[in-house]
Specification:
3 helices
């Protein structure tokens, strides 16, 4: 895929970005370099490479999921500024 000055100018227009002439030339070259590098990567044979999310074999350390009892309602609501029965009460914020 060829990225030229007109393509960058068109995308800048769609994005509502004002670019100077030297910026259009610079970005055209930079984006074309990126596309060329991606084309090089596409040419590589990756059939024997398994997909990974990280280059190192890192596993997440998880703890045992052990259910425990929660706080009693009285202790939970003890410092609540406002409560309604067994629930926290908050001021209405929608008009």
């Amino acid at each position: 895929m060829a990225i030229n000055r007109e393509t960058v100018e068109y995308v800048a227009h769609l994005s509502r970005i004002d670019l100077e002439d030297n910026e259009l030339d610079k970005f055209s070259r930079q984006i074309q370099d990126i596309v060329n590098y991606i084309d090089k990567l596409k040419a590589l044979d990756t059939d024997l490479v398994s997909p990974t999310s990280h280059i190192l074999p890192i596993n997440n350390v998880l703890r045992e999921d052990i259910p425990v009892s929660s706080l009693p309602i009285e202790k939970t609501l003890r410092n609540a500024p406002m409560k309604n029965a067994n629930f926290f009460s908050v001021p209405k914020v929608i008009e």
